[in-house]
Amino acid sequence: MQALVYTGPGTVEVLDRPKPTVQVPTDAVVRLLHASICGTDLHILKGDVPSIEPGRVLGHEGVGVVESLGSAVHTLQLGQRVLISCMTSCGACRFCQRGLAAHCITGGWTLGNKIDGTQAEYVRVPHATLSLHPLPDSIDARAAVAVSDAFPTGLECGVLSAGVQLGGSVAIVGAGPVGMAALLTARLYTPSLIVMVDLDEGRLATAHSLGAHATVVSSPDAEQKLMDLTGGQGFDSVIEAVGIPATFELCQKVVAVGGRIANVGVHGTKVDLHLERLWERNISIHMSLVNATTTSRLLRLVESNMLDISSLVTHHFPFTEAPKAYETFQAASQHKALKVAIDFT
C-alpha cells in the first residue's frame, strides 16, 4: 500500500509500505476512504514530539471500510463503513473503566503515535470493538472525519468541562477546528451568549455564520470588549482552544465569579496561573485529553440533523497530493482552511 510517512522534522512523503494485517483477535484492518490532519500532526512535523521517530505513518482521524476483522470482534462486519476514533480503548483497564480512554493502558493515542496511523490506504485499528463506530449511510463520509477528533474534543474538553448551561454566557478563545466544534456543540446547551475570539477575521466571520452571537478580534483591547459584552460580569464558561500563554491569560481575566475555565489547547511552554486574582472568585479550571466517549452520541446527533458537521471540512486533496494538504493546513489562515481532508477514493 501507499502511506504518508513522517521522514524527519518538517517532511512527509508518500511511500510504499506493507499492508497491515490483523495481529491479535481484537484488531481490525480498515481501508481508508478519507483521513484528516490534526494540529497534533503539525507538532510532530515540527519535531515537538520526540517520542515519534521518522518512519511513522501519521494520522489518528479517518473514515473507512472494514477490510478484515480479528476473531474477537463481533459487533462489526466486513465491508461496513466505520468512523475511526482518535483514541483506542480496551474498555477493561482501570482507566477505561473510569471513562479515561485517553489513558488506556494498551490504547489511548495509539494511531499515528505508537503504531502507524490513518494517513494511508489501510490502517490496523487495535481494540476495534470500542475504537470503531458504524457510520450511518445518511452521514457524509468526508465530513465525518471531523467527528474522529475535533468534535469530541470540542465537546468533552471544552463544552462539558466548561459547564456550558442553559442561558449561560460562553467565551471561546480560538476559532480553529476544535474551537468551531466547541461553538457548534455549545449551541446544543442553548446558552444566551456565545462569543468567539481569534486573530483571524475570516474565521470570526465563519464563527458568526455558525451561530456565535458576537466575535472579538484578539487585540490589546479584547479583554475590555469581552467584559463589555457581559456588562462587566465576565463569562460563566471560558474555553481556551489555542494553547499559548497569552490566550490562557485572557481566559483568566474574563471568567466570571463562579465560572469555569476549560483548557483545550496544547501548551508547550510555561503558563502563569494568577492565584492572587483568582483565589476569591470561586472559579474552577479543568484540563483534559479527549477520551472520545461521546463519539456515538455525536453521530446520533448528526444523523438526527441536530448537529451540522458539514462546515468544518473546508479543503480536500487526493491522497497523491497529501504533502500539499499539509502545506495548506500549515498555512490555514492564508487558505481560509479549517479541517483538511485527504481522499482515497
TrEMBL record:
Q: Which cofactor does it need?
A: Zn(2+)
Pfam families cross-referenced by the UniProt entry = ADH_N, ADH_zinc_N
Please give the InterPro entries that the UniProt record associates with this protein.
Answer: ADH-like_C (IPR013149), ADH-like_N (IPR013154), ADH_Zn_CS (IPR002328), ER (IPR020843), GroES-like_sf (IPR011032), NAD(P)-bd_dom_sf (IPR036291)
Listed GO MF terms: oxidoreductase activity; zinc ion binding
Q: Which domain of life is it from?
A: Eukaryota
Keyword Oxidoreductase tagged: yes
The protein's matches in PROSITE patterns, at most eight in alphabetical order, are given as:
ADH_ZINC
Give the family from UniProt.
Belongs to the zinc-containing alcohol dehydrogenase family.
This chain belongs to which protein, by name? Enoyl reductase (ER) domain-containing protein
